[in-house]
Specification:
Helix content: 25-40%
Shape: elongated
CATH superfamily of the largest domain: Zn peptidases
Largest sheet: 8 strands, mixed
Number of helices: 13
Number of domains: 3
Strand order of the largest sheet: 4-5-7-6-8-19-9-18
Structural class: alpha+beta
Distance between the termini: 37 Å
Radius of gyration: 26 Å
Strand content: 25-35%
Length: about 425
């Protein structure tokens, strides 16, 4: 019998088995231990139906920002059913599951975002949102399912686990700085978390097809700041513009001038985006309004590009308003830093991903995405990695943050296996052994 076939020969005295070309004998007393060899890939596949069930339950009941109490209750109930130690109200409405191993070892965090978006769902499947104007339109419902799956699988094997795994179900990712709130609440310090792993499913990278894992050894998502601006003029009759200070025309000039910051002041090798996504002003065709409201976002990777944008946005606006005798107000939020993966941890994760998805399905992304994510706060605090998991077709599927967004649920087992195996191996000390 060839060793590579990894077959077992069992008799009343011993087990003889082959693994990776080596021969091993186990006494009868070790038989029970032998059959407990874990296979998180298969175990995750075995709970695929449950992962879909959990995802759809959450999809029907979306919560926006920190108002995720219904989802938090559901998560906590599952964790408690499995005997997982649970913390509630972390970062306002977050839930933390703590899987403690039977032996001492390192502590790793698994971060899961769980908030939805203020979007009206346009899908017609049988698990659409119950709540008008609220929808899981970014895949966070799938992330919740993967986080629950990770907790379920680890809880089954905690007697064999060294170290501790902290599964952080975080509210308020979509612009609410929920990660910062959870960290400020002490979750990393309280549990002495040494590393973090997280992922995002969907079609965020056109480089990935269904079931492919995207990684980077540095930046993977951009920093973001959002802004609001008011151009305040003097309204009047549309036929008599000389008697007014027209905030519509002034706003148009400001928007055009802002784009020249990108093309003429940011170094061309530094990716940056400035988008004005909302303009409000006026009520009819022949009245020049008193005020125009602008709202937008800036994205960047390099701190120097961010510094230029944050400074020059208001300077340019102030200069144009002064030229045309208008007043202005300008507000810039604190935003999120860029998502930057730790190279050594990502190297560790890459091997795990290759073993689960196949080496051909693990891609080092050529281009990061200008989308932002507040997992960046976790990755500033401890080393770790944030991966992308292809869950659709970028050419035909509705994009993230759209009323018809959906993803292919068949990848839920893979996302679960990636999080579970990474957490297990880190807690077992495998990361430390390879560094």
């Amino acid at each position: 019998m060839h060793p590579r076939r990894q077959k077992k020969i069992i008799n009343c005295v011993s087990i003889l088995y082959y693994r990776q070309g080596a021969c091993y004998y186990l006494s009868v007393s070790k038989i029970a231990e032998a059959v407990k060899i874990r296979d998180f890939k298969q175990e995750a596949k075995d709970i695929q139906a449950k992962l879909v069930e959990w995802r759809r339950w959450c999809h029907r009941r979306p919560g926006v920002g920190f108002a995720v109490e219904e989802t938090a209750d559901y998560i906590a109930a599952r964790l408690e059913d499995w005997g997982v130690e649970t913390e509630r109200g972390v970062g306002k409405t977050g839930v933390v599951g703590i899987v403690r191993g039977s032996r001492p070892g390192p502590t790793i965090g698994v971060r899961v975002d769980m908030d939805a978006l203020p979007i009206q769902e346009e899908n017609t499947h049988d698990f659409v949102s119950k709540y008008p104007g609220k929808m899981h339109a970014c895949g966070h419902d799938g992330h919740i399912a993967m986080g629950l799956g990770t907790a379920r699988l680890l809880s089954r094997h905690r007697q064999d686990l060294a170290g501790t795994v902290i599964i952080i179900f975080q509210p308020g990712e979509e612009g609410w700085r929920g990660a910062k709130a959870v960290i400020d609440d002490g979750v990393l310090q309280r549990h002495q978390v040494e590393a973090i792993v997280a992922g995002h499913i969907g079609t965020l990278s056109p480089e990935l097809t269904l079931g492919q894992v995207g990684i980077t050894f540095g930046p993977i998502m951009a920093a973001v700041n959002n802004f609001e601006a008011w151009v305040i003029g003097r309204g009047g009759h549309g036929a008599l513009p000389h008697n007014t200070v027209d905030p519509v025309v002034i706003s148009a000039e400001i928007i055009t001038a802002w784009q020249r910051i990108i093309s003429r002041e940011i170094p061309p090798l530094y990716p940056a985006v400035l988008t004005v996504g909302q303009i409000q002003g006026g009520s009819t065709h022949n009245i020049i309004p008193t005020e125009v409201y602008l709202q937008g976002t800036i994205r960047y990777f390099h701190q120097s590009a961010g510094d230029i944008l944050r400074t020059r946005l208001e300077e340019v606006m102030a200069g144009i308003c002064k030229t045309w005798k208008a007043q202005y107000k300008f507000k810039l939020d604190q935003g999120y830093p860029p998502v930057i993966n730790d190279p050594q941890f990502t190297k560790f994760f890459r091997k795990i991903a290759a073993s689960l998805a196949g080496p051909e399905n693990v891609k080092v992304l050529e281009f990061p995405t200008m989308v932002s994510e507040d997992v960046s706060f976790f990755l500033q605090a401890v080393p770790g990695t944030f991966f992308l998991l292809g869950a659709g077709n970028t050419g035909t599927d509705s994009p993230h943050h759209h009323g018809r967004f959906d993803f292919d649920e068949s990848i839920l087992w893979l996302g679960t296996a990636l999080l579970t195996e990474t957490a297990w191996q880190y807690a077992e000390g495998k990361y430390q052994q390879c560094n």
